[in-house]
Specification:
The protein has helices spanning 3-17, 66-70, 78-88, 98-111, 146-154, 221-242; strands spanning 19-23, 54-58, 91-94, 131-144, 169-181, 187-202, 205-207. It is of the alpha/beta class. It has one domain. Strands 1, 2, 3, 4, 5, 6 and 7 form a seven-stranded mixed β-sheet that branches. Strand 6 and strand 7 (205-207) form a beta hairpin. The relative contact order is 0.21.
Length: 248
């Protein structure tokens, strides 16, 4: 079989096998911004709300995210989830981490007479969180894509090219979001999210880049898949949160 035809067949198989990040049945991206100007460049798949369902704080997973360090990803997905939650307008978010530490530091400086009182937030005007949202990365996998290699090896004339497809990897991740009532400690809602991506490396060339990118999660395919999984979980959680009884 002529070399040119062989290359075309390999390219066809590669393009047929490569996909962007799958969120449910479609691709996804997590990027853009949120704030007074509204959501900008948010994923089209992101479920939105006309008004916030509740005020929430975000908590780190008590078990940590050991898989993130192995892929040189940010140590926590909380900033990513903050962007999605604010873009959706489904939750009003209060900062109980760095933002709170900053507020306490300003109060301490005021109490020591270093700062002007009118420049520091007044005591008793903080907003309480009705719920706490806790993320967990439950599953992440990198598997060698033996399927493409096996397929090529069965086709006469393509057996010698099977080794070039050994760079195929099917990356997938599964995450969980838990929503807890801060007053009663009752778990109010839970949602899993999953995403998968395929990237094919031939001679150092990566085909089928995954779309993504917020707070460092768009640098690697692993990060993009995990980000998409959290987007999937966020959308499912919003559906459950909308059904919660409203409080006066």
């Amino acid at each position: 079989m002529p070399t040119r035809i062989v290359f075309l067949l390999i390219a066809t198989l590669a393009l047929a096998s490569c996909r962007q990040t799958d969120l449910g049945e479609g691709g996804s991206k997590v990027s853009g911004s949120a704030g007074p100007a509204g959501a900008k460049d948010a994923a089209k798949e992101l479920i939105t709300c006309n008004e916030p369902i509740a005020t929430i704080s975000l908590a780190e997973s008590p078990n940590g995210y050991t898989v993130l360090s192995s892929y040189q990803l940010p140590p926590t997905p909380l900033p990513l989830i903050r962007v999605m939650a604010q873009q959706s307008n489904c939750f009003r978010i209060v900062d109980r981490a760095a933002g709170l530490r900053g507020t306490l530091q300003e109060q301490d400086l005021k109490d020591k007479g270093i700062l002007k009182a009118e420049t520091v937030p007044k005591k008793g005007e903080g907003i309480g969180a009705r719920m706490t949202l806790t993320p967990s990365l439950t599953f992440s996998e990198d598997n060698a894509g033996g399927g493409i290699v096996g397929l090529l090896s069965l086709i006469p004339g393509l057996r010698d090219w099977a080794g070039l497809a050994s760079g195929v990897k099917f990356k997938e991740a599964q995450v969980v979001l838990l929503l807890t009532d801060n007053e009663t400690t009752e778990q109010l809602a839970a949602a899993t999210g999953a995403a998968r991506a395929t990237d094919l490396g031939i001679g150092g060339l990566v085909i089928g880049k995954v779309i993504g990118g917020a707070a460092g999660w768009g640098i690697t395919n692993e990060g993009k898949v995990i980000a998409a999984a959290f987007l999937d979980a966020h959308n499912k959680l919003v559906v459950q949160a909308r059904a919660l009884p409203k409080r006066g």
